[in-house]
Write a structure and sequence with these properties.
4 copies of one chain form a homotetramer. The first copy, chain A, is an alpha/beta fold. In chain A, a hairpin with a 4-residue loop joins strand 10 and strand 11. In chain A, helix 2 packs parallel to helix 10 and helix 11 packs parallel to helix 13. The longest helix of chain A has 20 residues.
Chain lengths: 346, 346, 346, 346
Amino acid sequence: MNHSPKSFASDNNAPVHKRVLQAISDVNQGDATSYGDDVYTLETEQHFKALFGKDVKVFLMLTGTGANATSLAHITQPYHAIVSAETAHLENDECGAPEKITSCKLITLPAPDAKIRPEQLPPLMESRGFQHHAQPKVVSITQSTELGTVYKPGEIKQIASFAHDNDLYLHMDGARIANAAASLDISLAEMVTYTGVDVLSFGATKNGAMAAEAVVFLEPSLGQHFEYTRKQNMQLTSKMRYVSAQFNALFTNDLWLHNARHANAMAKRLAEGIQDINNITITQPVESNAVFARLPLAAIEKLQRQYSFYVWDKSNNEVRWMTAYHTTIQDVDEFIAAIKDAVQQV
Amino acid sequence: MNHSPKSFASDNNAPVHKRVLQAISDVNQGDATSYGDDVYTLETEQHFKALFGKDVKVFLMLTGTGANATSLAHITQPYHAIVSAETAHLENDECGAPEKITSCKLITLPAPDAKIRPEQLPPLMESRGFQHHAQPKVVSITQSTELGTVYKPGEIKQIASFAHDNDLYLHMDGARIANAAASLDISLAEMVTYTGVDVLSFGATKNGAMAAEAVVFLEPSLGQHFEYTRKQNMQLTSKMRYVSAQFNALFTNDLWLHNARHANAMAKRLAEGIQDINNITITQPVESNAVFARLPLAAIEKLQRQYSFYVWDKSNNEVRWMTAYHTTIQDVDEFIAAIKDAVQQV
Amino acid sequence: MNHSPKSFASDNNAPVHKRVLQAISDVNQGDATSYGDDVYTLETEQHFKALFGKDVKVFLMLTGTGANATSLAHITQPYHAIVSAETAHLENDECGAPEKITSCKLITLPAPDAKIRPEQLPPLMESRGFQHHAQPKVVSITQSTELGTVYKPGEIKQIASFAHDNDLYLHMDGARIANAAASLDISLAEMVTYTGVDVLSFGATKNGAMAAEAVVFLEPSLGQHFEYTRKQNMQLTSKMRYVSAQFNALFTNDLWLHNARHANAMAKRLAEGIQDINNITITQPVESNAVFARLPLAAIEKLQRQYSFYVWDKSNNEVRWMTAYHTTIQDVDEFIAAIKDAVQQV
Amino acid sequence: MNHSPKSFASDNNAPVHKRVLQAISDVNQGDATSYGDDVYTLETEQHFKALFGKDVKVFLMLTGTGANATSLAHITQPYHAIVSAETAHLENDECGAPEKITSCKLITLPAPDAKIRPEQLPPLMESRGFQHHAQPKVVSITQSTELGTVYKPGEIKQIASFAHDNDLYLHMDGARIANAAASLDISLAEMVTYTGVDVLSFGATKNGAMAAEAVVFLEPSLGQHFEYTRKQNMQLTSKMRYVSAQFNALFTNDLWLHNARHANAMAKRLAEGIQDINNITITQPVESNAVFARLPLAAIEKLQRQYSFYVWDKSNNEVRWMTAYHTTIQDVDEFIAAIKDAVQQV
């Protein structure tokens, strides 16, 4: 399936934003030192410091799975356990990369809305000091979550507080961090730095970049020597200026934020357009750029002949519809009409 | 150091070829299915099949270290050993990625010209069947080598023959495979497929791409299930069309070959321009796009104030000068003049 | 806590059976080739072949965790997943050894009685062929289970049948395999070989040995080259005759079976002795050498001042009482009396 | 080959010392808490503290490879490199366990007498801070060495001093540490603690035990949390009292030292008995319990029909003859006679 004009399958299917592409083209002049020792990468680092705080340590990465698994490996020992919601990307969609790269056990918590609740954490501490049990060391949360929900700053603070009181780190998988920041309408620092996140996987690829991810150590001492971990785990690109250019474009004039706001608005428009349709139930709060809904199987099948999207839970006829920075009002409205049409026919 | 107009440090410092950049721009239209299920990636696979044989299995990758470590992991068990020349990139310049990703022992062979000789291999077989010893399973050669030399097809065949007679695989690190093919003036199939290579790391990044590497299984059964190994090792990019576009540009009208021929010609021009200078000794045959030379330390230091390049062996005052697809005749001639000037002053 | 005369904490707390100790002493004469190339180890292998079938491949190991993690590593690739009951020792009590040694993801299934039911397996196959998901490759069952229950041969056959129809292996964690065989009153071959188990961790340590475990490949081709996996994973002992001697003692005159029958009988006696006590609920079928029961917290605390045992589930006041080959009728009867006394006082 | 009355193949072929066996028997009474929480293990820890210093942290292990690989894993990160002599057991005879368990690169140094010289270390520091290179973190020396030589305390101090000045740890593989201490005639503390060793693999198996190894952290903070590393790496035995009993026997009345002195004396007797034989060259200083010698191939072959021993270097007709605690004067004298006879006949 290519060039489907109306994919609601994934924000990964979107093209690169034209200003990102232009930035790549703009840096394509002459030689530049490889492996990140170039002015563009320096500029990217400054952008991150401006957004997250002047002390953060930033490392550019190639994939979201790479950012997650590699950062987690750097802050753990093999006998540690990493705790996440059962819905976490690192549990479900990384083909065992966290286990292989960290050697740690993954422990998951039930999470109907993909969010860990602070009261789920204390029971995990019972294994502390018992040599037969992998020792919890990191709590990883996803922001925005895999179900399109968003942690409020207070919720993150509560988790961070428990974590830090119990010798745990707080990792945030920010594959869609821009959508979360846009949703909460607060700064990245307010959402991440001031809430107590220790390490962040910052994703730009789903927000208009080509392939641009980063690991941000909010607690900079945790990032010491991470250059070796990145290299050993095959995430160090030689011509780094082309990754940096993508970030620089997105961080110029808040393009990252505009992109995310637009994607979120399109999801909201979609949700509002279908909320009153009989036989459709929106199953999660629409807080970022995803709509989860249940509808009759026959309607799903009819729709999938026109539109690309995932059935999230077969047993339940639940689907996931993603919007992206380039989804248009017209796309959404046509899709709403198609949904109505499909549901009415069944 | 940025935009040094005259870097002879690395072909990694070069910009992206304009036709590669154009190709990236050309595919930036509308949605495309992520993770390689798109028409551009299909086209890339067809190019590889045309060049290496219709049965090969091809997987696009993000870094050269990723291509090496991941392909080696796929064809070994942890108790195996991987044999290479002592000069190999995977031994020296991958921060232990092969050990971490494969769990194997690396065994190196002395190689003054960076090439393994077939007669070095039989003694390694003495550990066969002895449970205390890591069991050799792969011989890895680099083509062109880290010292700019090139294996002749007959040499590869001899190594492959020994390997296959002894239950070993032959891996080729082709980070600069185009330069080798250009140097030998034979087809990729003649150099790789017909000589008995089992697995190839195919590099395009040093030859005008932005970030485009591939693993090619010449013996396709070896590549079965490699999609999981790639994903688990964090080398699966979501928006793969942009990697494929780079390959497609390079494979169109033999751009890859023209680029490599030009880089090689520039190295040859450089070598010829300095071969008669007193106090300079060219230390390796100039068979691809590198010139290794010894010259007085004072001359090195003077030159490095103008030009970026690496001292390869401090103990020896040996330097490495790399050319790339975009090195011009004028660049080379000016560099020759600067070298002469630097040497004469000491 | 030492030499507690009446531990019901674990069959690991028991001393070594006197005939096992005698056997160790008996082989302590003169030199013997190290690393298993000795007559005693050959004899052990013959015992295993007599019990499980002449084609099995057997490797002596040092710990139960070593037998589990190492055998699983040998039959998997890192991108595989290993499926077990949520109660499995390898999930809960091996400090992440399976993850570190195999690099695989562990997937657990709900199991109130610690037994996997065949109908739980088909949904796991939905991830097959999806490159983002770790691929299920092994189902591991424990026999007897961590909750003292026992799979019937027909149950194992059903699981094996599904496994083999779906390109999965069936692993059995037999840390207490003797107790299971004694419970079912069938031969080891009937319970393991003929039911379709592919790989077995055979434990003798909990059944009267000092430290004697084994990996048995029922499907011998799976065990090819396991000698290297054992050595690389640090489970090859040099003076192997002393491990072999333990097995040989246990396999002589069915000592292994007598030990297990006795331990099981003691658990049954204990269960029968307490089943009518008010305020005590036996929570699992008593099918091997463990009794799980709920009783008032005050009674637990009183009992623990006299006897060593584990509280299994704090939230529930559920305890585990283990018997062993050396538990006497008097031990049990005194313990029953103590329990009655403790419960009546609350 | 079994019960060869006259093996000179390995100190691993020797039986268990009768006092060690008696000690195992003596602790075989009643229940004891498993996993090391017993009085015998506490006693063992006290012995180690008495010998090495009151602050050391001690962990009992099951194999020498386990002690080496696991302790090295605990004090390194995967991107580190471990430096040893090219002759080191961990490089040659552990089937890649160090690579698998630590994920580190192994770097070896030429060592004709199996000893690292301090002046070999500074060049390794050139890779410091270069992200493409595995970063040296540990120097591992073997005492006594694989070639029977012994580091003098001053030599160890020099290596330790360089190590500590350069943020490296010093690990000692003490598989035959007793032979070294006996050879130098100094205390273990003088040889290990006061020379600056950070971590020690202490071997007892080759010195009269059945299977008893330990990791000793001389710098105790390095040993923090090692209980998890031991468990995850499958080296935690359940019935630990039987390992502790072995150590306790060896540490009582200096049995460990008497055993080692005797083995050393037998090697010296052997060396003196053959040093004047024509056609035999002793190739290494005989400083512990090994004699390395070159002799005619025909003589080797004749001898091997009567005696078990290893040809160390085929290319060179160099053999290794090991003595052990139980080698008798008569054994040695008969062996000397056999050697003379074999050599004279050729």
